[in-house]
Amino acid sequence: MRQYPPDGLMSPGSSRSAPTVDDVQTGRLLDETATDLALRATQYLRTRFRERVTVGDLSAHLAYSPSHLTRVFTSVVGTSPMDYLAAWRLHEAKHLLVSHGLGVAETCHEVGYTSVGTFSRRFLRDVGTPPGSLRRIADRVAERTQPAVSLLVPAAGRIRIRLDIPEEMRRALGPAPYQWVGTFPRPVPSGLPTSGTLRRHIDEVELPMVPGSPWILATIFPDGASVHEQLAPTRPLVARLHVPEEPVPAPVTLPVRAALPWDPAVLVALAAMVV
Prior knowledge:
Blueprint: H1 23-26, H2 32-47, H3 55-62, H4 66-77, H5 81-99, H6 104-110, H7 116-127, H8 131-143, E1 149-151, E2 157-164, H9 167-173, E3 178-184, E4 195-200, E5 205-209, E6 215-221, H10 227-231, E7 237-242, E8 252-255, E9 257-258
Parallel strand pairs: 2-8
Antiparallel strand pairs: 1-4, 2-5, 3-4, 3-6, 6-7, 7-9
Helix pairs in contact: 2-4, 2-5, 5-8
C-alpha cells in the first residue's frame, strides 16, 4: 500500500468538556464519557478507512454494544459511525486527488473502495462534482479570486444569519475571508446545500427557509486560503445550528469555532459551485 504524508487534519487531542454540535448553541456540555467515546471511535475509523470496518468491529474495539455506541456517537458527532467512515474516505480521496494528482481508479482503491463506479457515484453525490473533475476545478480555483455567489430557491420564508466569530479568530482570518453559509437536510456538510451563499468578508446573510433543510452550516476560510484548503479543508472554522422551519423575525446567530477532533469532514467542494 502506498503511503502518503498526513493531510494535516486536526490531530485528536483532549476532549475534556468540549462542546459539540448543538451544545455550542445551547450552552450544554456533553459528559466526558460521551466525548471520549466519540474521540476514540473517530480515531479508530480514521486510521482504518482503507479496511472493511463494520459497526461490530468498532463496538468490539471500544467494548460497547453496537446500539449504545451508535446512539452516543450520533448524539456527539451528528451522524452515524458508518456514515462518518464513508465521509472520511471521501475526504481522503479529495486530498489524494488535489494534493497528489492521483487518477480516479488509483484513488478509489487507496481509500477502500473496490468499485470505481460506486466510488464515483458517491463522490459526486457527497462532494458535488465528479472525482475526475476535482483536479481541473483546483487548477481554475488557483487562477482567480472566488466571486460572491448565491444558490437560492423559492421559499415562503427567509432567515437572516449572523456569524459570531471570536476576535482572535477574526484577526487571523485576514481582511477578506471566505464565508460559506448554507442550509442542509442533515447536520453534516455533505452534498451541495439546498440554498447557500459565498461572501468575501464576514457579513450578515439572508437565505430561504426550505422545508426539509433545517440545518444552517457555515465554513470559514482565511483570506489567501490555498486551493487544497478550499477543496479539502483540514482545519476549518465551522458553525452549525438547527432552526425551526417557520420564519424567524430577528437574525439568528451562528457561533463559529474551530473544527473539533471528531467533527465530520467538510465534504462538499464549495468552490465547485462557482467555477
